[in-house]
Amino acid sequence: MEPSPLELPSDTVQRIAAELRCHPTDEQVALRLDEEDTLKHFRECFYIPKMQDLPPIDLSLVNKEENSIYFLGNSLGLQPKLVKTFLEEELDKWAKMGAYGHDVGKRPWIVGDEIIVGLMKDIVGAKEKEIALMNALTVNLHLLLLSFFKPTPKRHKILLEAKAFPSDHYAIESQLQLHGLNVERSMRMIKPREGEEILRMEDILEVIEKEGDSIAVILFSGLHFYTGQLFDMPAITKAGQAKGCFVGFDLAHAVGNVELHLHDWGVDFACWCSYKYLNAGAGGLAGAFVHEKHDHTIKPTLVGWFGHELSTRFKMDNKLQLIPGVSGFRISNPPILLVCSLHASLEIFRQATIKALRKKSILLTGYLEYMIKLYFNKDIGGTKKPIVNIITPSNIEDRGCQLTLTFSIPKKNVFEELEKRGVVCDKREPNGIRVAPVPLYNSFHDVYKFINLLSSVIDSVETKK
């Protein structure tokens, strides 16, 4: 039976448990959820690391032939099996025909990025001409800020969240320094309220309203790397633009994770990496977005040959014919081997669709949240059991697939014991462990096994105290 659109994940779990006449924590529930999952076959499109191949594994605690529980797609997505095929196609072409590969084949090297850029449209909710695949995330962020950040004596601030990802923080800091501005005065950071982890939207909007006349650019992450909070991008965009600010987003943790509608939201610019939820491999080809409304008003500050119109690019007359919009920001020719790995993953997204993936993700992460609260709730009968707290917002509209957990016992010990048992997740300072069940390749049974291992780990850590 399909859950109704309004059915919460917890209600779905309880409904299935009632149908099966078992407790919601029973393995049968996970198996039924997997059975009803219409996207489950996409798991076969990826290589899932085996227990025996993980460096921290303790082989005495696991079956070495089993798949690991890989909950780290928020840091590095798994390898699509199609990557090897696509790479071999281009390596073979290079070996057989050398430079002729620039003009022929499935992915002519001159336009390799343009061949696949259309596959990004639905993932970020933009027109094809508003997207460029190029460089790495922070390089793109610098290129975009050079054009969108034009400070004046009155409007000189960049607004961001206080614990932004370090590369965003450094990029903004250095852009301010490039313009000779005082970082403490012009770098406006919003902190959560005292004793809270999550930024409140009303606080963000209040700062924009009060200080918007002095803010040149608002740059937020779409989804916060540490807390897992999904920001209300349309509301931030609307509020910022109403005060005359340009509004941009770092979508590193949002792209391929949640639905995005950059064009319809009217976002001015955005950038993202491709090695997390987009599964393009370490250092994969990044992306950038500039809204079409800026096609003829915002131009790149730094230009290169690949920003020149293709039709006249090879005249080599050094008379720049700049491509309007974001494609004009491209500086160099596309790295075809990186194009291949991204292409392989985007083909899977095309088949699965981001809408269907998001629907599964809500239930998958909701099942994880439900199980954690059931097993480790601090309100359980006055016991002194260790507490697992979820700092990620509980509202499904305010998060993606990641949950950030904190513990009443040392997180380092919990993390190390999870690693020994084949759970691949990560820890982030000051005190979080991030777990991200990815709908493309994680199953509900993965969640079930994780919860049982986490319970075992917590008991183990407690025993050793």
Automatic annotation (TrEMBL):
<dbReference type="GO" id="GO:0043420">
    <property type="term" value="P:anthranilate metabolic process"/>
</dbReference>
<dbReference type="InterPro" id="IPR015422">
    <property type="entry name" value="PyrdxlP-dep_Trfase_small"/>
</dbReference>
<feature type="binding site">
    <location>
        <position position="250"/>
    </location>
    <ligand>
        <name>pyridoxal 5'-phosphate</name>
    </ligand>
</feature>
<feature type="modified residue" description="N6-(pyridoxal phosphate)lysine">
    <location>
        <position position="276"/>
    </location>
</feature>
<dbReference type="GO" id="GO:0034354">
    <property type="term" value="P:'de novo' NAD+ biosynthetic process from L-tryptophan"/>
</dbReference>
<keyword id="KW-0378">Hydrolase</keyword>
<keyword id="KW-0662">Pyridine nucleotide biosynthesis</keyword>
<feature type="binding site">
    <location>
        <position position="275"/>
    </location>
    <ligand>
        <name>pyridoxal 5'-phosphate</name>
    </ligand>
</feature>
<dbReference type="InterPro" id="IPR010111">
    <property type="entry name" value="Kynureninase"/>
</dbReference>
<dbReference type="GO" id="GO:0005654">
    <property type="term" value="C:nucleoplasm"/>
</dbReference>
<dbReference type="Pfam" id="PF22580">
    <property type="entry name" value="KYNU_C"/>
</dbReference>
<feature type="binding site">
    <location>
        <position position="333"/>
    </location>
    <ligand>
        <name>pyridoxal 5'-phosphate</name>
    </ligand>
</feature>
<feature type="binding site">
    <location>
        <begin position="165"/>
        <end position="168"/>
    </location>
    <ligand>
        <name>pyridoxal 5'-phosphate</name>
    </ligand>
</feature>
<comment type="pathway">
    <text>Amino-acid degradation; L-kynurenine degradation; L-alanine and anthranilate from L-kynurenine: step 1/1.</text>
</comment>
<keyword id="KW-0007">Acetylation</keyword>
<feature type="binding site">
    <location>
        <position position="253"/>
    </location>
    <ligand>
        <name>pyridoxal 5'-phosphate</name>
    </ligand>
</feature>
<dbReference type="InterPro" id="IPR015421">
    <property type="entry name" value="PyrdxlP-dep_Trfase_major"/>
</dbReference>
<protein>
    <recommendedName>
        <fullName>Kynureninase</fullName>
        <ecNumber>3.7.1.3</ecNumber>
    </recommendedName>
</protein>
<keyword id="KW-0663">Pyridoxal phosphate</keyword>
<dbReference type="GO" id="GO:0019441">
    <property type="term" value="P:L-tryptophan catabolic process to kynurenine"/>
</dbReference>
<feature type="binding site">
    <location>
        <position position="221"/>
    </location>
    <ligand>
        <name>pyridoxal 5'-phosphate</name>
    </ligand>
</feature>
<dbReference type="GO" id="GO:0034341">
    <property type="term" value="P:response to type II interferon"/>
</dbReference>
<comment type="subunit">
    <text>Homodimer.</text>
</comment>
<dbReference type="GO" id="GO:0097053">
    <property type="term" value="P:L-kynurenine catabolic process"/>
</dbReference>
<dbReference type="GO" id="GO:0034516">
    <property type="term" value="P:response to vitamin B6"/>
</dbReference>
<dbReference type="GO" id="GO:0005829">
    <property type="term" value="C:cytosol"/>
</dbReference>
<feature type="binding site">
    <location>
        <position position="138"/>
    </location>
    <ligand>
        <name>pyridoxal 5'-phosphate</name>
    </ligand>
</feature>
<dbReference type="GO" id="GO:0019805">
    <property type="term" value="P:quinolinate biosynthetic process"/>
</dbReference>
<dbReference type="GO" id="GO:0030429">
    <property type="term" value="F:kynureninase activity"/>
</dbReference>
<comment type="similarity">
    <text>Belongs to the kynureninase family.</text>
</comment>
<keyword id="KW-0963">Cytoplasm</keyword>
<dbReference type="InterPro" id="IPR015424">
    <property type="entry name" value="PyrdxlP-dep_Trfase"/>
</dbReference>
<comment type="pathway">
    <text>Cofactor biosynthesis; NAD(+) biosynthesis; quinolinate from L-kynurenine: step 2/3.</text>
</comment>
<feature type="binding site">
    <location>
        <position position="137"/>
    </location>
    <ligand>
        <name>pyridoxal 5'-phosphate</name>
    </ligand>
</feature>
<feature type="binding site">
    <location>
        <position position="305"/>
    </location>
    <ligand>
        <name>pyridoxal 5'-phosphate</name>
    </ligand>
</feature>
<comment type="function">
    <text>Catalyzes the cleavage of L-kynurenine (L-Kyn) and L-3-hydroxykynurenine (L-3OHKyn) into anthranilic acid (AA) and 3-hydroxyanthranilic acid (3-OHAA), respectively. Has a preference for the L-3-hydroxy form. Also has cysteine-conjugate-beta-lyase activity.</text>
</comment>
<dbReference type="GO" id="GO:0005739">
    <property type="term" value="C:mitochondrion"/>
</dbReference>
<dbReference type="GO" id="GO:0042803">
    <property type="term" value="F:protein homodimerization activity"/>
</dbReference>
<dbReference type="GO" id="GO:0030170">
    <property type="term" value="F:pyridoxal phosphate binding"/>
</dbReference>
